[in-house]
Structure formats: C-alpha cells, structure tokens
C-alpha cells in the first residue's frame, strides 16, 4: 500500500478574498474566545503577508507577531471581558474601500 503524505492544514492558505477574511474573523468573533480570535487575526495577517501588513500599518514585523500571539494576550482578553460584561459583541464587516486590507 502506498504511503499517503500529509501536512498540517493552514487556514492562511485558504483566505484568498476580503470576504473570506471577514467571514473567517466573524466566525471567530461569534465563538468569543480571545485566543481563537487572535489566532484568526494571525491567520488573516499571514494570508495577506506579514511584511506587507507591516509596511501598510507602519508597525514593526516583530511587534505584529507579538500582538498576534495567542500566548497570553492580556489586552485582548480584557477587551472581550468588558464587551461580555456590557452584553456587547464585536462583528467583522468588510469595508467598501478597496485600499483597505
């Protein structure tokens, strides 16, 4: 029997359009888990290209990687706790501006 070669599935490889990115982020936001949301943002950033995102935002690539880390992101956790306590949720909606990421 022939061996089947597998590799790890990477969401970033499947986020081709802005609509894909918005839908992916919206699904993560619906879950409400800050780690999942951060991971989704990181996948989206990688699909766009960290170097390009760094250029467009004016943020250092290392700082982008740190901000998108799923390991201990207290600022995002705090924001979501505040939203939850207020009975609010975030929603991802694609902008009409074609120059936007």
Pick out its properties.
5 helices
Residues in helices, as a percent range: 55-70%
| Radius of gyration, whole Å | 16 Å
- Mean pLDDT comes to 84
Structural class call reads mainly alpha
Strand content: under 5%
The overall strand count is 0
Oligomer: single chain
Q: List segments where confidence is low: pLDDT < 50 over at least 5 consecutive residues.
A: none
| Shape, per Cα inertia axes | globular
The arrangement of helices and strands along the chain is HHHHH
What does this structure look like?
The protein is mostly helical and 101 residues long. It is built from five helices and no strands. It has helices at residues 18-31, 34-48, 50-57, 61-67, 74-85. Helix 1 packs antiparallel against helix 2 (34-48). The longest helix is centred in the middle third of the chain and has 15 residues, at 34-48. The N and C termini lie far apart (46 Å). 12% of the residues are buried.
What would a concise description of this structure say?
By secondary structure, the protein is mainly α. It is built from 5 helices and no strands.
Can you lay out the helices and strands and say which pair or pack?
Blueprint: H1 18-31, H2 34-48, H3 50-57, H4 61-67, H5 74-85
Helix pairs in contact: 1-2
């Amino acid at each position: 029997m022939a061996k089947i070669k597998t590799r790890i599935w990477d969401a970033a490889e499947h986020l081709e359009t802005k609509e894909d990115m918005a839908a992916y982020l919206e699904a993560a936001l619906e879950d409400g888990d800050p780690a999942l949301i951060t991971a989704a943002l990181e996948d989206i950033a990688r699909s766009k290209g960290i170097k390009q995102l760094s250029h467009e935002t004016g943020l250092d690539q290392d700082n982008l990687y740190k901000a998108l880390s799923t390991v201990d992101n207290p600022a995002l956790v705090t924001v979501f706790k505040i939203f939850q306590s207020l009975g609010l949720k975030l929603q991802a909606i694609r902008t009409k501006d074609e120059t936007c990421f």
